[in-house]
Amino acid sequence: MSGPDVLVDIAGLVKSFGRFPALRGLDLQVTRGEVHGFLGPNGAGKSTTIRVLLGLLRADAGTVTLLGKDPWADVVELHRRLAYVPGDVSLWPGMTGGEAIDLLGALRGGIDERRRAELVERFELDPTKRGRQYSKGNRQKVAIVAALASDVELLILDEPTSGLDPLMEKVFQEVVREATARGTTVLLSSHILAELESLADRLSIIRDGRVVQSGTLADLRGQTHTTIHATLGRTPDRETLAFFHDVHLDGDRFSATVESTRIGEAMTLLAPTGLTSLTVEPPSLESLFLRLYGDDTPAEATR
Ligand code: ADP
Ligand code: MG
């Protein structure tokens, strides 16, 4: 798909730092109205991709279209139509949080005053403190309020809640949902699947500078296996067993795995064996995540 409903359209993006290739032919498409989760371990290339989108870095190769424009050439226009929240927000040390919100809002062609006030309250932000007095989490809140109070087409959020506590993370999830209800499109990066799970309509998973999977969470889950434990009345025939993977038969106790999309067939095959007990374990997010990330993932990423 391409055209006006693809707000972020990246194909074959390459970006190296010196001789280190941070992005090695990355493809990413974000369509209008969705929350697109951009998931990958630390160092995978999420921020580099986002910095190319923001016109802060120039691509070495590939094509990048943002809101139908060129992020490098059309930077002024584009920054009126989008808002960005980084994972580590720097603020002007002598400016109050409230002034920073207004300044950032002005750059984006204005702020919705009512929403601004409401967001300040919901995030329990004291806007009268100066930049240098804020903790990391509070600087983050200033940037989130400024972004969400602006009327923009696209929100680019790069690990935006890394400094927030769980209560505020929840507020963040609510306000992002409200933004999408207003028609805003969101690109949301994280190295933690759980942060994207409830918000993202689609996910793109990045590893070593490439998108390795893209789809809805259900799509991605469908590619993993479900585990079945059963107590059987009699031993299934060979044909039945061939349908399953990782089969263990111990007397009347049966366990196996099956593609998550084929559970119905599995039940039909097992029913004639006279089931007396049955448990079905859907693929855990953990196992999905590990499979997508591979085995060399730092433990932190699966928190
Ligand atoms: P992520 O945001 O997914 O954690 P980044 O895009 O920040 O990953 O980084 C991708 C890779 O590029 C990492 O190996 C990182 O060390 C490297 N990198 C990022 N920015 C620079 C830079 N300015 N100079 C050199 N290497 C960089
Ligand atoms: Mg990053």
UniProtKB/TrEMBL annotation:
Higher taxonomy: Bacteria, Bacillati, Actinomycetota, Actinomycetes, Micrococcales
InterPro entries: AAA+_ATPase, ABC_transporter-like_ATP-bd, ABC_transporter-like_CS, ABC_transporter_ATP-binding, P-loop_NTPase
Keywords: Antibiotic resistance, ATP-binding, Nucleotide-binding, Transport
PANTHER family: ABC TRANSPORTER ATP-BINDING PROTEIN, ABC TRANSPORTER ATP-BINDING PROTEIN NATA
Superkingdom in the source lineage: Bacteria
UniProt entry tagged with the keyword ATP-binding: yes
Ranges of residues in domain ABC transporter: 8-233
Membrane topology summary: Peripheral membrane protein
Protein name: ABC transporter ATP-binding protein
Protein family according to the UniProt entry: Belongs to the ABC transporter superfamily.
Keyword match Transcription: no
SMART domains for this protein: AAA
Any one of the GO CC terms: plasma membrane
SUPFAM superfamilies: P-loop containing nucleoside triphosphate hydrolases
Localization annotation: Cell membrane
BP GO annotations: response to antibiotic
Protein's organism: Cellulomonas biazotea
Single Gene Ontology MF annotation: ATP hydrolysis activity
